[in-house]
């Protein structure tokens, strides 16, 4: 708990810079599993991050722990595939839980609160080359992109993420049998809405029915750095 408190205090000292605001959050992807006994501290850390406006924490539950005896209720093969994509792009041979990927670039052990704080602070200081705004109009997200500076050549993926702020599960089998956990920002859907070359402005409309939270990430394809992120208003 003392380490977690130090982490929160460290984050509070980092303020947005160079035209950035809380509307341009640092994206933290946590790869976790309900079948992983070392994951609860990272899950708790993500829960702390979910209370901040300047961080966009996303929990992607993977399925490769399911064989131990408990099938993760939120796990998706697509989450495992995304984690493997990051590993391949970063020249890593293995994947693991709990792992956090910060802004599509930094690989951090998810339970290492101070290393996570350092990575978030680093990315808060880096200017974003793309201006991104996302607004809801009924059941539609209106996404507007504009380059602030020269964006490196190549494909940029405009991705829409849907997530549930809190989900509680009582685990009855596996390494965490008998425990109940509340998970934050559980990712339910992840889709590529468009591709963009970073030249000129782009405006698209994407169906997003219901009141479930949504966020938009703009990422160098296929598993490169995230150059812009915003939550739907």
CATH architecture: 3-Layer(aba) Sandwich
Per CATH, what is the topology? Glutaredoxin
CATH class: Alpha Beta
In one word, what is the shape? globular
N/C terminus separation = 33 Å
Count up the domains: 1
Report Rg.
17 Å
What is the SS-derived class? alpha+beta
- Beta-strand percent range: 35-45%
Any overview of this molecule?
With 233 residues, the chain is an alpha+beta fold. It has one domain: Glutaredoxin (3-Layer(aba) Sandwich). Helix content is 20%, strand content 38%. A 4-stranded mixed β-sheet has the order 2-1-3-4, sandwiched between helices. β1, α2 and β2 (55-61) form a beta-alpha-beta unit. α1 (2-12) packs parallel to α4. It is globular and about 55 Å long. It starts with a helix and ends with a strand.
């Amino acid at each position: 708990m003392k380490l977690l408190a130090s982490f929160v205090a460290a984050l509070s000292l980092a303020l947005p810079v160079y035209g950035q605001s809380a509307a341009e959050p640092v994206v933290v992807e946590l790869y976790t599993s309900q079948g992983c006994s070392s994951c609860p501290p990272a899950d708790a850390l993500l829960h702390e991050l979910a209370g901040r406006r300047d961080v966009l924490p996303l929990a992607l539950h993977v399925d490769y722990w399911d064989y131990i005896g408990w099938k993760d209720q939120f796990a998706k093969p697509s989450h495992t595939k995304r984690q493997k994509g990051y590993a391949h792009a970063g020249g890593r041979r293995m994947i693991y839980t709990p792992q956090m990927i910060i802004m599509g670039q930094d690989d951090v052990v998810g339970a290492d609160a101070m290393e996570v704080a350092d990575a978030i602070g680093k990315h808060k200081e880096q200017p974003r080359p793309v201006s991104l705004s996302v607004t809801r109009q009924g059941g539609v997200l209106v996404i507007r992109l504009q380059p602030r500076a020269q964006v490196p050549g190549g494909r940029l993926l405009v991705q829409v993420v849907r997530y549930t702020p809190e989900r509680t599960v009582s685990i009855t089998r596996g390494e965490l049998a008998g425990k109940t956990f509340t998970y934050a920002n559980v990712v339910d859907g992840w889709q590529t809405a468009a591709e963009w070359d970073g030249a000129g402005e782009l405006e698209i409309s994407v169906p997003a029915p219901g009141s479930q939270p949504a966020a938009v990430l703009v990422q160098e394809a296929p598993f490169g750095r995230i150059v812009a992120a915003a939550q739907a208003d």
